[in-house]
Design brief:
- There is one protein chain.
- This protein is of the alpha/beta class and 389 residues long.
- The chain folds into two domains: 55 residues, Winged helix-like DNA-binding domain superfamily/Winged helix DNA-binding domain (Arc Repressor Mutant, subunit A, Orthogonal Bundle); 290 residues, D-Maltodextrin-Binding Protein, domain 2, CATH 3.40.190.
- The protein is 40% helix and 18% strand.
- The chain is built from 14 helices and twelve strands.
- The strands form three sheets. Strands 3, 4, 5, 6, 9, 10, 11 and 12 form an eight-stranded mixed beta sheet that branches. Strands 1-2 form a two-stranded antiparallel sheet. A two-stranded parallel sheet has the order 7-8.
- Helix 5 links the parallel strand 3 and strand 4.
- The protein is globular, with a radius of gyration of 23 Å.
- The protein starts with 21 loop residues before the first helix and ends in a 20-residue tail after the last helix.
């Protein structure tokens, strides 16, 4: 059995890089370039170095990595392809844990290099926008005269708010369908955790959730109800995640049962892991954000637009780190960057908002004026297909 050893580097470059492996980088280059010489040029290395490293790895692992057919382009062996597949699976499934580990290290070194650095701990539902925010906080924050380090711990939406209420973080991130109806599953999930007057919402973004499907949509799925087909292998998110709440609410509104979906009990820890499962062919469909689908080249069927909220205790609003974050969120540099992310739109970024203004559950005056709506406005694709269709 081969064991793994991890290393990390320190750099003044604010851009975050994924966990890298020298062998995987070599294999990726050969697979994409079609020859060792082209791979060497792409990596800025000599042919002799790349060839020697591949041979060394073959000896160390005891398996051929490339097929060396005379007169043909170099291609990965079956073992080399399996290594690449294992790398993609591990990166997708472990992304939240890797980000948490990176955040721990960066926080420790931020204090070591700058005793006056501002550190803001954020527990949040997995989100590509927040990952982008953490990457740019140092660069943009320095332009604003602040050194802000975001210590982000990705977890489920429910766990994130609980961490806030228990004092384990300053800020929590969760997401809901826009204007969720009173009495909905969304209300029953989040209302017990939030208290008007005690909690404040900080505007962040809207994002699109939908079905991520194999490239070209080979199964021809056009409605949420069609994931009930026996031929569709679904991959879900875990209980306690905001995306699971969104799915279950959409299923309720469409009169569908989760147990009727093949794969409803199979879960992955993030949007990127769901997308990778579909891209690898082990699943056919899963609910996720447009950015995750785009990153894997998947077909995306939009279902519902949702708001991603940042929430803090009212007593924390005056803390310097939170004020710096709000200033960052309101900068043109940040809103322009977020708008480039597939499916995202800035929404009152950095503005403090009352719970009663954002969520309808405590709007007692509105409740007296008219009956609660029966459902939430969602995309036509989330509605069940009429029987005559």
């Amino acid at each position: 059995m081969h064991r793994l050893a991890f290393h990390y580097t320190l750099s003044r470059d604010a851009q975050t890089r994924p966990v890298r492996n020298a062998l995987i980088e070599l294999l990726q280059a050969v697979a994409s370039q079609g020859s060792i010489s082209a791979a060497a040029r792409a990596l800025g290395l000599s042919y002799r170095h790349v060839w020697g490293e591949l041979k060394r790895w073959e000896n160390e692992l005891g398996n051929e990595l490339l097929q060396w057919d005379k007169g043909k382009s170099a291609r990965l062996s079956a073992f080399g392809e399996k290594l690449m597949w294992a790398e993609r699976q591990a990166q997708a499934r472990l992304a939240p844990q890797i980000e948490a580990l990176r955040a721990d290290l960066e926080t420790a070194f931020a204090v070591a290099f700058d005793a006056h650095a501002q550190v803001l701990t954020l527990y949040a539902s997995h989100d590509d926008g927040l990952a982008l925010l953490r990457e740019q906080a140092l660069a943009i924050g320095q332009d604003l005269g602040e050194r802000l380090h975001l210590d982000i711990r990705f977890c489920g939406s429910v766990d994130a708010i609980r961490a806030l209420n228990e004092g384990r973080c300053t800020l929590a991130g969760f997401h809901t369908i826009q204007s969720p109806a009173p009495g909905s599953l969304t209300e029953r999930t989040y209302k017990p955790l939030l208290q008007p007057g005690q909690h404040k919402i900080i505007g962040f973004a809207t994002r699109m959730q939908g079905l991520m499907l194999a490239p070209g949509n080979p199964l021809g799925i056009s409605r949420l109800a069609e994931v009930q087909q026996a031929s569709v292998r679904y991959v879900n998110r875990a209980l306690g995640t905001g995306t699971r709440v969104v799915l279950d609410q959409l299923l309720q509104q469409a009169g569908l049962a989760g147990d009727s979906i093949h794969g409803y009990q199979r879960t992955e820890p993030s949007h990127s892991a769901v997308a990778q499962a579909i891209a690898s062919g082990s699943a056919d469909a899963g609910l996720g954000i447009a950015a995750a689908a785009s990153a894997q080249g998947l077909h995306f069927l939009p279902l519902v637009q949702e708001s991603y909220h940042l929430v803090c205790l009212k007593s924390a609003l005056d803390e310097p780190a939170l004020q710096s974050l709000r200033q960052l969120l309101q900068s043109n540099a940040w809103t322009d960057s977020l708008a480039q992310l597939s499916g995202y739109t800035p929404e009152l970024s950095g503005q403090v908002r009352a719970l009663r203004k954002v969520l309808p559950w405590w709007d007692f005056a509105r409740a007296k004026r008219k009956p609660a709506p029966k459902g939430t406005t969602i995309s036509k694709f989330a509605q069940p297909r009429p029987a005559s269709a």
